[in-house]
Every structure is written in C-alpha cells, then in structure tokens.
C-alpha cells in the first residue's frame, strides 16, 4: 500500500525552516492536533485538541470549504463558551507573513465567519488583520467591515474606528499595493477569486466616507490622528467634501483628543512593533546600526514602506513610553530612532508628514490631559542634535514655527499657546533643565533663536502676532509646507 | 504523533545534544556544533571553482554571524545562500567549526548538519571577538585539542564593523 500523502502545509518554508514535525515550528501544535483529529466532527466536541485541529482543517482543507467544519465550529462554540476564543487565538498564533496563500485566504474566511456570528474573539483577529494591510486578498476584510458596519458601530465601536483608521492610512499615497506574491494557490477557485484592495480603491473610499458620515462619533474615538489622516487625503474629492461639510467645525474638538493606545497599535504592523520595541528596550547605544539597516530593508525599502514613516513616528511618540529604568539602561532612545527615521525619508512630502507626526501633540498640548512623553522625543531630538547635527535642530525648530503659523490659521493663537505650554511642561518635568540650551545656543541660526525667545516670552496675542506672524524665510516656504502636508 | 519531543535531534546520532555559545567554539573535525546565531552580513557570492563543472550545491558564500558572546564566519553552501539574509536568526545543529580550503576558519553546517531559520531581528550580538580571526595551535599538553594562540584581528577582516 502506498504511504498516505503528507498533510498539507500552512506556512511557507523550505529546507531551511523548521519542519512542521519539529517542536520549534509554529505549525507543530496544529499538525499534532490534526493527526489526532484528522477530520473533526461533532463527536469530537469534548476534545481539548479540537480548536487547533479544527483550525488546521479550516485553513488547509481543499476548496470548497467542507460544510461540516462550519457545523462543528458553531456546535462547539454553542456548547462551550470558551471555544470560539480558543479557535480565534489559535488562528492568531500563526505567523501571518509566513502563511501560504490558501491558508491565508481561509483565515480571512474564518474571520468573516466569526464576525458574522459575533463570536467572542473575532475582534482581536480582525484587528490583527487590519495591522497587516496591505496583503494579497485583503479586499475581503473590507467586505467584512462593510457588511457589519452598523452592528460594529453599536457593539465594537473601537474596532470600526480601527478599520477606518487603517483604511485611511492605506489610502494615503502609494500604500495600497500588497507586496507581489510569488507563491500562488493556482488550483483553487477560492484563491483565484480573492481580490486585493488595490483593485477597489473606490469602494474603500466610499466605505470610509460613509462611516465617517454615518458614524462620526465612532470615528472621533481615533482622536487628533483622524484629522491628520484626513489632511493627507484632502485632495480626494469625497474626503474634501466631507471635510468641508461636516468635519471642519468639529476638527478643533477632535484635536483635543490624543491618540488612544489601540490606535497607536494600528499605526504599525505587529512585526514592526516587535522590532522597534526590541531596539528601544534591548539594543545599546552604538550597536543600533545593523538593526536599523535590517529594519529599513524589511519595512521601509519596499513599495509604500517610506510612506509608513510618519505613522511609525506616531507609534514611537504615543505608543511606547519607556520606564525610567529602561531609559537609564543605555539602550537607544526614542528620539534617536526618530532622528534616524527622519533621515531615512527620501521623499520630501514623507519627511514633512513625519515632522508633522513628531510635533502633532505639541500643537494641541494641554497640560492637564496631555502626556509629556508624547512631546519628549521632539524636544530631545532638537536638544541632542545641537552640537553635532545643528542642521536637524534648525530644521525642526523652523518646521515647528511653520506649523504654528500655518497648520490651522484660524486657530493660530490657540496652537501657539499649546506649543508654549509644551515647552514649559518639558522644562517643568525636567526633560530639559531649561530652554537656554536652545535660546542661548550659538550654533543655532540666530534668526530662529531670536524667534524662539520672542515666541516664548510673548504673553499676549498681539505680541505673538508681531513676533511670529512674519514669514520665517519667505512666504513661499509656508506655501510649500502647506502643499506638502496637504497634497498627497 | 509525528514529533519526537522537544529538541529532538534533526539528524540523529551526529550531535551530542548540548548547545554552545560562539565564544566556546574550538576548531575540531567533528560535526557536533549546536548553536543559535544571528546573521549580520553576507558577502557577494564566491565564484564557482575554476576547475570542474559548475555545481550549485558546491557554490559557497561567506557570512558574518554572531551571538551575545562572539562572532564567527559562517560558510553558506548551495541553497543556504538564498535561504538566509542578514537579520535572520539561525539554529545550527550538527555543524562543524574547522579550516576550509585556504586556511580560513569557518563554521558551516557541512553535509550532515542542518541550518534552520528560527526567527528574525530580536537577538543581541557582539562583533568582537571573532572566533574565525583567532590563531589556534595544538595544546602541547593534549595534542587532540586546539588552544588559542593569538588574536589575528579583534573583528572580522572580511566584514568591517559598521561604526
């Protein structure tokens, strides 16, 4: 008798990856469960191996998906309250970037099925998929959110807001196309029909516009980064109209809300997060070069990669606040990582957006509500660059003044007040001993230094108008900024 | 069940099962090195040997690898050259640390060992000492053993440190 065919694979990997039979492969627990329950049926409900075995069959069984798997899924979910959770966690435990096309499409199908049933555990699964955008076959994710938008607005508003944020970021220039797929699941209709979001830009725009219009309050949970996203998309007609008709009046209010934690996570993929956190928690000063090269090669030097830098900057400012112990342990600091990211921008609009991202919390800083850790990296980057990289300090300070004067001309004075506040709190909390380090620094451009002194000491609006109202260099520079910030 | 328990030797019978750090590498003609390292850099591919037929399995490429104790040169053979990139964390089982061709001291999987990618990025490393840049001599007291005589270079002379 010929030996039975080997079980199908979930993950890519040839001779130089651990085989699924090796305990170090993430596929191993799935395969073990599959060998125990090769064809899950309702009689297997009490088995502890069922979540993994069912997940394996769900991802790997050839097309079309056997109906009995859905029956088992919902029978188990109905009988054991923790089952759906265990099933969703099993799917989450697989390294998504390594999933083969067929299991990846099936994972989306499983997410869709769990969402349809509003099964416990479906939200983290969808969040994790949103963080992986763009990927081949990602259009199904839009279908899921489109189908359940009203339900989610009531029951999982944070999830719906996450989707809007993720989709808006994807719509920003050059990010829609997933990395080309070299492996295809060619013999299956399910995979052949999987669509990419790149092919349905219109649907994506109309979905975001409709949620922004119909569930404005849900979208406002995103806070000020919603406004930042929309500014980058102002040339898209639908968003322009929406902005003019309904968001403009609310913008000031929305900007008072800082970026919530669940939103900072959406700004980067889980792989980026792991690597950034490793750098900022473990890698000592002076040893970061190679890690930066690897990170850049993997995440930045790919199509749409550079465009992610502004969001990475937001993640670092708002999403990761190291403890004092970590800060004193000699590891590479947040401001240094951001400095490196700024110098990694080749496109000027990306660099402008990255600087907006860096100073964004300064523009709306409120001592009572704002966190000094959000504004600390920009300050330390300016201060620590003074001696060796004065260009960076000059560039950042000049940009900060451009923002104060041009970001929202109708609220210029309020923004100036917030920025003054930010400077004051940075000194008060001891991030810098005093602002002399900038105001008395010979190396800094004398004009900027003067401007800073005047800006910090101006108490009344009139005075600010006098000292900061004049163009920094020439009016064209401000125009240039406006174009760069808003035109992509 | 198909698996043989945690850390079952991939190729049975050739390795002792214990894991070493790179700083404990000693040149020896046995394929018994089990270790985990991160690939720091990869050289351009070596041209195929001038004599004989071009055989992809025989073509090599030198890489700089390291862990938190030391660095070493690792020789990638055949398909390994494309399987590993800088930043990859690799587990080597049943590898050899010995002299290859013109006296260069390299770590490699050899015909009976195995190198597997087990992760990426999240591993600390040092570039000094580099065990491939050490001059070894036979231990006068025990000629079967090699001992360090001198450090040829504190870091790799093939892959210069980035700082």
TrEMBL record, chain A:
Listed name of the protein: Integrator complex subunit 3 N-terminal domain-containing protein
Lineage, highest ranks first: Eukaryota, Viridiplantae, Streptophyta, Embryophyta, Tracheophyta
Organism: Oryza nivara (Indian wild rice)
One GO CC annotation: cytoplasm
Source superkingdom: Eukaryota
Domain Integrator complex subunit 3 N-terminal: from-to ranges: 84-452
Annotated stretches, region: Disordered: 1-27
TrEMBL record, chain B:
GO CC terms: chromosome; SOSS complex
Gene3D superfamilies: Nucleic acid-binding proteins
One Gene Ontology term from the biological process aspect of the record: mitotic G2/M transition checkpoint
Domain of life the protein comes from: Eukaryota
GO terms assigned for molecular function: DNA binding
Keyword set, alphabetical order: DNA-binding
InterPro entries: NA-bd_OB-fold (IPR012340), SOSS-B (IPR051231)
Name this polypeptide is given: Uncharacterized protein
Source organism per UniProt: Oryza sativa subsp. indica
């Amino acid at each position: 008798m010929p030996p039975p065919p080997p079980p199908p694979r979930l993950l890519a990997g040839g001779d130089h990856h651990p085989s699924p039979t090796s305990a170090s492969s993430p596929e191993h627990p799935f395969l073990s469960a599959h060998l125990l329950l090769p064809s899950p049926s309702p009689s297997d409900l009490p088995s502890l191996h069922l979540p993994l075995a069912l997940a394996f069959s769900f991802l790997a069984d050839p097309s079309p998906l056997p109906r009995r798997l859905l029956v088992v899924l919902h029978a188990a979910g109905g009988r054991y309250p923790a089952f759906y959770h265990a099933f969703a966690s099993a799917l989450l435990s697989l390294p998504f970037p390594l999933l083969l096309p067929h299991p990846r499409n099936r994972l989306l199908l499983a997410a869709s099925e769990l969402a349809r049933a509003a099964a416990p555990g479906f939200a983290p699964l969808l969040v994790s998929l949103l963080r992986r955008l763009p990927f081949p076959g990602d259009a199904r994710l839009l279908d899921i959110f489109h189908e359940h938008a009203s339900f989610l607005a009531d029951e999982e508003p944070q999830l719906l807001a996450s989707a809007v944020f993720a989709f808006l970021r994807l719509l920003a220039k050059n990010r829609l196309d997933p990395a080309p797929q070299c492996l295809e699941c060619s013999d299956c209709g399910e995979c052949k029909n999987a669509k990419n979001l790149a092919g349905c830009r219109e649907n994506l725009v109309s979905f975001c516009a409709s949620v922004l219009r119909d569930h404005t309050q849900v979208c406002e949970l995103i806070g000020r980064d919603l406004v930042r996203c929309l500014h980058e998309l102002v040339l898209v007609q639908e968003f322009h109209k929406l902005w003019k008709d309904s968001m403009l009046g609310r913008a000031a209010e929305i900007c008072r809300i800082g970026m919530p934690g669940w939103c900072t996570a959406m700004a980067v993929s889980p792989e980026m997060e792991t690597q950034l956190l490793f750098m900022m928690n473990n890698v000592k000063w002076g040893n970061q070069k190679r890690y930066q090269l690897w990170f850049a090669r993997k995440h930045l030097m790919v199509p749409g990669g550079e465009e992610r830098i502004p969001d990475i900057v937001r993640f670092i400012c708002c999403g990761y606040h190291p403890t004092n112990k970590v800060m004193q342990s000699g590891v590479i600091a947040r401001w240094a990582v951001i400095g490196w990211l700024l110098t990694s921008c080749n496109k000027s609009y990306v660099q402008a957006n990255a600087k907006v991202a860096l100073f964004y919390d300064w523009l709306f800083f409120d001592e009572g509500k704002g966190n000094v850790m959000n504004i600390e990296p920009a300050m330390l980057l300016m201060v620590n660059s003074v001696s060796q990289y004065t260009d960076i300090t000059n560039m950042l300070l000049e940009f900060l003044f451009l923002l104060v004067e041009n970001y929202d001309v109708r609220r210029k004075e309020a923004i100036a007040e917030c920025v003054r506040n930010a400077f004051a709190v940075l000194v008060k909390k001891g991030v810098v001993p005093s602002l002399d380090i900038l105001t008395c620094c010979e190396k800094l451009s004398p004009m900027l230094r003067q401007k800073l002194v005047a800006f910090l000491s101006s108490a009344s609006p009139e005075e600010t108008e006098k000292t900061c109202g004049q163009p920094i260099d020439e009016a064209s520079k401000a125009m240039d900024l406006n174009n760069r910030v808003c035109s992509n | 069940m198909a698996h043989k328990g945690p850390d079952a030797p991939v190729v049975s019978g050739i390795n002792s099962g214990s894991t070493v750090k790179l700083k404990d590498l000693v040149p020896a003609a046995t394929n018994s090195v089990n270790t985990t390292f991160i690939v720091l850099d990869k050289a351009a591919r070596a041209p195929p040997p001038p004599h004989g037929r071009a055989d992809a399995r025989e073509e090599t490429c030198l890489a700089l690898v390291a862990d938190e104790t030391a660095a070493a040169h690792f020789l990638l053979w055949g398909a390994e050259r494309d399987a590993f990139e800088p930043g990859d964390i690799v587990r080597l089982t049943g590898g050899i640390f010995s002299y290859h061709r013109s006296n260069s001291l390299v770590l490699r999987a050899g015909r009976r060992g195995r190198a597997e990618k087990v992760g990426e990025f999240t591993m600390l490393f040092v570039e000094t000492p580099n065990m491939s840049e050490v001059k070894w001599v036979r231990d006068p007291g025990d000629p079967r053993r090699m001992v360090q005589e001198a450090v040829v270079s504190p870091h790799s002379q093939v892959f210069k440190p980035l700082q």
